[in-house]
Amino acid sequence: MASETMEMNGDADRLREDREAPQQGRRRRMSAPLNMNHYANKKSAAESMLDVALLMANASQLKAVMEQGPSFTFYTPIITLISISLILQITVGVLLIFIVKWNLNDESKHYQLNVLENVSTALVFIIVVVNIFITAFGVQRPNTGA
């Protein structure tokens, strides 16, 4: 009888350990240190992919406006805004290359990286505002049909 009780207690302990083991594993995985360099590189890569997508959209809009020619009502403002957007996007792309190249774990680079991150964020905001105006002025493709 005593051996059965000890066996049951042993089973209960094993069950408790089995239930707690996955939770402890989850805690360990969640508390793993964040590799800031890896995080920053992923963030910059995602931002640069969005920048490329917007660059392609602006190039397409520029082509559409140029196809319409100077007879388009907002020809000069749209060409100017699209050009500003393209220049800013190329600038942000170059900044992101520098940000990714530098090691975030090197504390001597923190100030420079922080400045570059702030400048790129401000430029991205300006790009968004410029593209809102581009959309507001409207870029229509010329009618090729009757």
UniProtKB/TrEMBL annotation:
Keywords: Cell adhesion, Membrane, Transmembrane, Transmembrane helix
Keyword Cell membrane: no
InterPro entries, sorted: Ninjurin
Transmembrane segments: 72-99, 119-139
Gene Ontology CC, one term: membrane
Keyword Transmembrane helix: yes
Highest rank taxon of the organism: Eukaryota
Localisation: Membrane
Topology in membrane: Multi-pass membrane protein
Residue ranges with Basic and acidic residues bias: 11-21
GO BP field: cell adhesion; tissue regeneration
Annotated region described as Disordered, given as residue ranges: 1-33
Similarity section: Belongs to the ninjurin family.
PANTHER family: NINJURIN-1, NINJURIN-RELATED
Protein name, as recorded: Ninjurin 1
Source organism of this protein record: Ameiurus melas
Species classification: Eukaryota, Metazoa, Chordata, Craniata, Vertebrata
